[in-house]
Amino acid sequence: MHNTEQFWQWFTNHNEQLIMLGDMSEQQRTDLEKTLQEELTAYCDGLSYEMGDPTPNGRRLTFSAEGDTELFSHVVDLVDTAPDLDWWEFVAFRQAVETPVIVRFGPYSFNTSQMHFMQLECEEEPDILGLRIAMADPKPDDEDQLVGLYTTIETIIGEFDCATLVGYMEACPLPAEPFKEGFRPLNDLPQFVEWFKQQRDADA
């Protein structure tokens, strides 16, 4: 198992190659991306990375624990010890994407503008957020749809909040008049999560 220093030493040694990733042949790019993942796995099995598209200010490299909170500290340690390299921005955890957004997973497409949510409260765990998601054609027993739904929520509120705040989630059919049933637009969930965290911290 590598430590953070060994991972960043490898990254620094291959920095110029990684910068030129877009100019490589498909095979060279695939091999280098595979080696980067192998180095990351050697540091901590279970972590992954996502490399953003190049911009005039550089490129973002995001490290993820794939929602596994037991590995979160390893992601934080890795980013905290990152070297100061020109052209790179190193980020811990997948960040929230601005709504509205359409998330595709397997055969399913999740349009946040066509979905609603309701908070499910739990007296035993008031710091944990339960969500009922109203959507067209929910299939409670379909694993792909459930994973896609979770991915959608993670996409709009970010990996960290999704993994640490959302303790329960269920899908239900979209009512004819969702507002009368107590639902809110799913596009409002990021703002609701921020409010929920403020209330939680105020009560602590």
Describe the structure.
The chain is of the alpha/beta class and 204 residues long. It folds into two domains: 4-92, no CATH class; 102-203, no CATH class. The chain is built from seven helices and nine strands. The protein has helices at residues 4-13, 15-19, 26-43, 72-80, 143-157, 159-165, 189-203, and strands spanning 48-51, 59-64, 88-92, 102-105, 108-111, 116-120, 129-135, 166-173, 184-185. A four-stranded mixed β-sheet has the order 8-7-6-9. Strands 1-2-3 form a three-stranded mixed β-sheet, covered by helices on one side. The longest helix is centred in the N-terminal third of the chain and has 18 residues, at 26-43. It is elongated, with a radius of gyration of 20 Å.
SSE diagram, text form:
Elements: H1 4-13, H2 15-19, H3 26-43, E1 48-51, E2 59-64, H4 72-80, E3 88-92, E4 102-105, E5 108-111, E6 116-120, E7 129-135, H5 143-157, H6 159-165, E8 166-173, E9 184-185, H7 189-203
Parallel strand pairs: 2-3, 7-8
Antiparallel strand pairs: 1-2, 4-5, 6-7, 6-9
Helix pairs in contact: 1-3, 5-6
